[in-house]
Each structure stands twice: as structure tokens, then as C-alpha cells.
Structure to design on (226 residues):
């Protein structure tokens, strides 16, 4: 199963629609939006798809947006992290500004890997779990995502759990123990705009550019961070 990951639309609904088309062309069967949707127009683009999302720090009209999302038939997140079970893998979704995510970032920064893995397991265990398709289809404190993006990679192993997040507008793909953290980048306030695919069977992550000027016939463009 291929998962399409996007984040930080900030109301850019046309670019979000282009990103969704790109991800679907790349074989994504399920979409996850990591927050900062930015309004009803972006929720409209998610409608009718196999998709989950979390709220970001700029989604300030949350009660109104939650009611609207429910009217569209979208699954409104019940808590943080949003925990999914897909293709036998556990996936925890944050935006990246939450206190829980900050706690994880601090453990990575101090290289307390065993404590980090234990906290991930606790958060996943104590959060409502969505077993996808098994019955049916203003910031305060530290910038946790900046810390995580800067960490050195741990030698590759197959991930036991994935953490998806946004907020920093910087793509990231790193492993900490048996946890793989993925930031797809952003669809606004970033250059270039990027999304990500995650092949759950192969544990394969790829980043892709979203170009507003690309023609439909243009091939997808990979993005490789420096």
C-alpha cells in the first residue's frame, strides 16, 4: 500500500488539488494531511477520498471547520496523535507544534533513544486507533520540528512505526531506532512545494515536487534534500 502525505496547505486549495492528483498518479491509495489546511476550500479537495488529517496551529476556526468537515463526510481527528493502522503498520500523525511532539523532539535532541521509543509506544497505545479499511473504508515554546530536521540518521532498519508531521515547511526523512519520522514539506511558504509517498510494504519514502506551472503530460519530479 502506498500512502500519500501532504501538509501545510494554508488555504492553497488549487495547489492542494494538484498535489492530490500527483500523489494519486504515483499510486497513492490513502492520503494523510499533516495539518494547517487553512479553510473550507482545502477540505473540499479532500472530500470523497480515502483521507485522514490533523489540525495545525493556524487552523484557528476549528469548531466551525470540524462541523464543515463532518458535513462533507470527512473523518475529524479525535485527538493527537492521530493513530492509524495501515497494512499492518502503526502510523502516528502530528502537525508538529503539539506538546506531545515537543516531548519527542527533546528526547531525540538529547539522544535518549530508548525513552523516545517508549514514549512513541505509549502515545500510540493510549490514542484512539483507526484500523483503516478493516471494517470499511499560534506557536509557543520551542520549534520542535527544527530540532528533529537537524538530527543525524540512525542506520537503516525496517520501521516498526511511522511518525508523520509537518509545521516546519522542511522535508525530512529520518530514523530513530525503529521509528521513522517523515515530513513531506509544505504546499505554501516553501520553495519548492513538496509532498511525499510512503510505500508501507517496502518501507520506501520518496519526496516529490509540486509545480504550479507543470503540464499534465510532464513526468513527476523527485525532490532530494541537500
Amino acid at each position: 500500500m502506498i500512502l500519500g502525505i501532504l501538509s501545510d496547505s494554508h488555504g492553497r486549495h488549487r495547489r492542494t488539488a494538484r498535489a492530490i492528483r500527483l500523489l494519486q498518479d504515483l499510486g497513492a491509495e490513502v492520503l494523510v494531511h499533516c495539518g494547517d489546511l487553512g479553510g473550507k476550500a482545502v477540505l473540499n479537495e479532500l472530500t470523497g477520498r480515502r483521507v485522514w488529517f490533523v489540525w495545525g496551529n493556524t487552523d484557528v476556526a476549528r469548531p466551525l471547520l470540524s462541523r464543515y468537515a463532518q458535513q462533507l463526510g470527512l473523518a475529524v481527528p479525535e485527538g493527537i496523535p492521530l493513530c492509524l493502522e495501515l497494512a499492518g503498520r502503526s502510523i502516528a500523525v502530528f502537525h508538529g507544534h503539539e506538546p506531545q511532539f515537543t516531548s519527542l523532539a527533546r528526547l531525540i535532541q538529547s539522544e535518549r533513544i530508548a525513552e523516545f521509543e517508549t514514549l512513541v509506544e505509549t502515545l500510540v497505545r493510549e490514542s484512539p486507533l483507526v484500523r483503516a479499511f478493516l471494517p470499511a473504508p499560534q506557536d509557543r515554546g520551542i520549534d520542535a520540528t527544527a530540532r528533529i530536521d537537524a538530527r543525524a540518521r540512525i542506520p537503516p532498519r525496517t520501521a516498526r512505526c511511522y511518525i508523520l508531521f509537518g509545521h516546519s515547511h522542511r522535508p525530512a526523512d529520518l530514523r530513530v531506532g525503529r521509528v521513522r519520522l517523515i515530513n513531506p514539506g509544505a504546499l505554501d511558504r516553501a520553495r519548492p512545494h513538496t509532498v511525499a509517498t510512503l510505500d508501507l510494504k517496502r518501507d520506501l519514502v520518496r519526496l516529490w515536487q509540486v509545480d504550479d506551472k507543470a503540464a499534465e503530460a510532464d513526468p513527476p519530479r523527485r525532490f532530494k534534500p541537500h
